Amino acid sequence: MLYPLSYGRSLKEGIGRGSRIRTCDPLLPKQMRYQTAPCPARVRKAGILFGRGRPVENRALSGPETVCENPPPRVGLRAPVTAKILDGKAVAQQIRDELKGRVARVRERLGRSPALSIVLVGDDPASAVYVRNKLKTAEEAGMGIAHERLPATATLAATLEVVRRFNQDPSIDGILVQSPLPKAMGADAEQQVFDTIDPGKDVDGFSPISAGRLVQNREGFAPCTPAGVIELLVRSKIPIEGKHAVVIGRSDIVGKPMASLLLHKNATVTICHSRTRDLPAMAREADILVAAIGRPAFVTRDYVKPGAVVIDVGINSVTSPEDARRIFASHPDRLETFERRGSVLVGDVHPDVVEVAGALTPVPGGVGPLTIAMLMANTVKAAELRGR
Ligand code: NAD
Predict the structure, then answer these.
(1) β-pair type (115-121, 144-150)
(2) Ligand 1 residue neighbourhood (C-beta within 6 Å)
(3) Prior bond of 364 cis (ω within 30°)
(4) Based on the structure, what is the number of domains in the chain?
(5) Is it the case that residue 76 has pLDDT exceeding 60?
(6) Peptide bond between residue 180 and the one before it cis (omega within 30 degrees of 0)
(7) β-strand partners of 346
(8) How far apart are CA 217 and CA 202, in angstroms?
(9) Which member of 25, 173, 178, 202 is catalytic?
(10) From 25, 87, 173, 204, the catalytic residue
(11) Which of 76, 101, 132 is the last residue of a domain?
(12) Is residue 232 located within the same domain as residue 166?
């Protein structure tokens, strides 16, 4: 049992200066939002008087289930939360559930399940984890999977050969080559791979054909991460049309397709990047701010207009204790995770932005799960489009 949301909402129910629990109720008038109140159990036990000297009658905490058995939250460490947290995991689950019927219909029509092939080159541990998760999710969704693993010493020619084989294979609907490829393959290796994948099987949406179709708002495969962001916004009932969306990052796989998708939803879009002048001022113009930069906790409170919707695409691992202490100073739970594991994930958005934004995607549990869900959706779509 933790403390009910209503705890501390009014003077009658527990707000009092100089007490021990920091309240974080966004429904309070601003000047009362950050006041503190004592632990309810202690209130009951000691019959403390507080709040203009009136006895506390804490109705919300009167039942047996409300006994405060847990230690009170840590004083003053936790930042008051104002942003609505956009639950990417729940939306991703919804999308995967909706795919079940479509998978069954493909099975009826083709006599087999939609099938995804993944090529992993080298032994990058993060890539291995991503690939494992994608294969596991595909399997759980009842899809067929093919996994080709090449050593770090594999040549680009050998990798392209595998791609061509999957291109020709009629039992495969989607092809994904996990990034990054080993550096030794050369700077344009990924582009050559994307150029080789059959556009009808390009479920990552990285081929030039897919990119062109996306810009022209035609049927095709949109890259999974930005497509997932749109699903999250739409399913969270966040209006896009007419809003000013600012995308920080201009990569081919996130920033640019994100901008196109927001544009197709009738947002007014600004793309920012490493050469943008006065980035904080530009970002503060955003009703919807998307951060796809690849720099831990880069977007701080002064980048965010109060109430803006903030989408954090970044996934960065913090491994230095100094960085962890600096970034998570007001987030003891995350610091505990760091102490326990020796690393902790953080997005491109500073966790304190939760105090300014109107809505925010968490890291982990925000955009990440949607990327995989959209990969499944693209694979099912590829199977549906086959032979049509
Ligand atoms: P990238 O390195 O290709 O692109 C980063 C972009 O950020 C560039 O366009 C660059 O101009 C911009 N940038 C860099 N430094 C900047 C600065 N100081 N000021 C302003 N802009 C700056 O990265 P990417 O592939 O687009 O990925 C971005 C982030 O998203 C990374 O953290 C990556 O791990 C994450 N990502 C997450 C998912 C997911 O599933 N959640 C998927 C893909 C990427």
Answers:
(1) parallel
(2) 225, 248-251, 253-255, 272-274, 276, 279, 292-295, 313-316, 348, 367-368, 371
(3) yes
(4) 3
(5) no
(6) yes
(7) 316
(8) 16
(9) 178
(10) 204
(11) 76
(12) no
Atom of ligand 1 nearest to the CA of 347: 32
Give the neighbor-by-neighbor strand order of the sheet with 144-150.
Answer: 144-150, 115-121, 174-177
Residue 128 CB neighbours (<10 A): 14
Condensed to tens digits (0 to 9), the pLDDT of residues 179-196 reads: 999 999 999 999 999 999
Q: Is position 107 within any domain?
A: no
SS3 101: helix
Residue in the block written with tokens 């000691």: 46
Q: Which CATH number characterizes residue 348's domain?
A: 3.40.50.720
Catalytic site residue 134? Answer: yes
Cite the beta strand spans of 205-267 per DSSP E: 244-248
Residues 195 and 239 in one domain: no
Rounded Cα gap, residues 335 and 58, in angstroms:
33
Residue 62 lies in a domain: yes
Half-sphere exposure of 79 toward its Cβ, with a 13 Å CA cutoff?
Answer: 17
Same domain, 203 and 256: no
Indicate if 204 belongs to the active site: yes
- Name the closest-CA residue to atom 3, ligand 1: 251
Question: pTM to 2 decimals?
Answer: 0.81
| Rounded Cα–Cα distance for residues 3 and 212 (Å) | 52
295 alpha carbon to ligand 1 midpoint, in Å? 7
Do residue 263 and residue 193 come from a single domain? no
Q: What CA–CA distance (Å, rounded) separates 67 from 287?
A: 41
- Provide the residue range defining the domain that includes 171: 112-217
- Please indicate whether residue 89 is annotated as part of the active site: no
The CA-atom distances, in angstroms, between 343 and each of 78, 186, 364, 366 are 20, 31, 13, 19
pLDDT for 100-131, tens place per residue? Answer: 999 999 999 999 999 999 999 999 999 999 99
Domain C-terminal end among 176, 202, 217:
217
Instruction: Give residue for tokens 């179709």.
Output: 213
Residue 234 and residue 282 in one domain: yes
